[in-house]
Amino acid sequence: MRDTTPHYEQQYLDLMRHIWRHGDERIDRTGVGTRSILGATMRFSLADDAVPLLTTKRVYWKVAAREMLWFLSGDTNIRELVRQGVHIWTDWPLDAYRRATGETIDRDAFEARIIEDEAFARQWGDLGPVYGAQWVNWPRYEAAGDGLYRRAAQGHNQIADLVAAIRATPGSRRLLFTGWNVAEVANMALPPCHMTYQFQVSNGKLNGLLFQRSCDLGLGFAFNIFGLSMITRMLAQQCDLEPGEVVWQGGDVHLYLNHAALVEEQMERIPSGAPRLRINRRPSDIFSYAIEDFEVINYAPQAHISAPVAV
Ligand SMILES: Nc1nc(=O)c2c([nH]1)NC[C@@H]1CN(c3ccc(C(=O)N[C@@H](CCC(=O)O)C(=O)O)cc3)CN21
Ligand SMILES: O=c1ccn([C@H]2C[C@H](O)[C@@H](COP(=O)(O)O)O2)c(=O)[nH]1
């Protein structure tokens, strides 16, 4: 008998079609323009190593994996990403540099300088207190006497605390971490988009949920859903739980108007296949994973579709 269960990716293609047809058109912060809706949910199983990679275009999952490991390292400077050949965050520091200096340096030259010149990287490569800073070092203040306070040397490590909490109180409804530090949002190159992650233990399985306040459905989503799945798998492994499912919730979910070619092409394609994410080692703690620990098998996507990123 033919399997009539819809492919997991159908949810994504349906949402894309809905937004492209019925989304509210407006000029957004970037000036590119979007069609957008408020509020959407998708769910994907992680059972038997299933991973919700898009199959209707090739997704460079290792780029997303390196980005996730970079967040967990607490780093907020693009230097390490650029060293690893990851270019997805370069446009924001590059834009700031061009505006501040009036120089018309191109992206390759800017990246070369970030790698070669440590002082330059320190001055121009930092994104401010973005994801990594908040996840593992959320500022904490301690009393310094006479009613004064000073910033503590070590902030809150939300990720370490989360691992401990999943282990100690698996029934808890407080298993979460967030990048949305109200006091520091103004100093970030971009306020967090994938802002709040929540977890739940159910029948020995770990479920993960992401609230993403703003979603570039054509470009960012593919990375964000992989990241959610990856961190859920890592947490499950560290807490001796089986992977359950991931739930993705979007706030402002949009398609950029200059992604028309991508959207039209992708909506024509039929999803297929069941990729698996393997973790080939059990590191001693959540901060000790390396890119080599991750492997995706059974991934035979259709051709990559490139699309410009709105800065
Ligand atoms: N408009 C916008 N969309 C985003 O998805 C996004 C931002 N801005 N700003 C911050 C980060 C950076 N992220 C990005 C940026 C670029 C790509 C991108 O160009 N992806 C291409 C090529 C990837 C590559 O060459 O490695 C892709 O096809 O996935 C993806 C995510 C996600 N975020
Ligand atoms: O992980 C990410 C990071 C960013 N995005 C997208 C969502 C928006 O298109 C822009 C951010 O612009 P805001 O004006 O700050 O909302 O980047 C994403 O989809 N995923």
TrEMBL record:
GO terms (BP aspect): dTMP biosynthetic process; dTTP biosynthetic process; methylation
Pfam families noted in UniProt: Thymidylat_synt
Active-site residues (renumbered): 193
Domain Thymidylate synthase/dCMP hydroxymethylase: 10-311
EC number: 2.1.1.45
GO CC terms: cytosol
Residue numbers binding (6R)-5,10-methylene-5,6,7,8-tetrahydrofolate: 216, 310
Compartment(s) where it occurs, according to its Swiss-Prot or TrEMBL record: Cytoplasm
Keywords in alphabetical order: Cytoplasm, Methyltransferase, Nucleotide biosynthesis, Transferase
GO molecular function, one term: thymidylate synthase activity
Binding site for dUMP: 29, 173-174, 213-216, 224, 254-256
Pathway(s) of this molecule: Pyrimidine metabolism; dTTP biosynthesis
InterPro entries listed in its UniProt record: Thymidate_synth/dCMP_Mease (IPR045097), Thymidate_synth/dCMP_Mease_dom (IPR023451), Thymidate_synth/dCMP_Mease_sf (IPR036926), Thymidylate_synthase (IPR000398), Thymidylate_synthase_AS (IPR020940)
Principal cellular location given in the protein's record: cytoplasm
Reactions catalysed according to its record: dUMP + (6R)-5,10-methylene-5,6,7,8-tetrahydrofolate = 7,8-dihydrofolate + dTMP
UniProt family annotation: Belongs to the thymidylate synthase family. Bacterial-type ThyA subfamily.
NCBIfam families found in the cross-reference section: thym_sym
Described function: Catalyzes the reductive methylation of 2'-deoxyuridine-5'-monophosphate (dUMP) to 2'-deoxythymidine-5'-monophosphate (dTMP) while utilizing 5,10-methylenetetrahydrofolate (mTHF) as the methyl donor and reductant in the reaction, yielding dihydrofolate (DHF) as a by-product. This enzymatic reaction provides an intracellular de novo source of dTMP, an essential precursor for DNA biosynthesis.
Subunit structure: Homodimer.
Full protein name: Thymidylate synthase
Annotated source species: Sphingobium terrigena
Chain's gene name: thyA
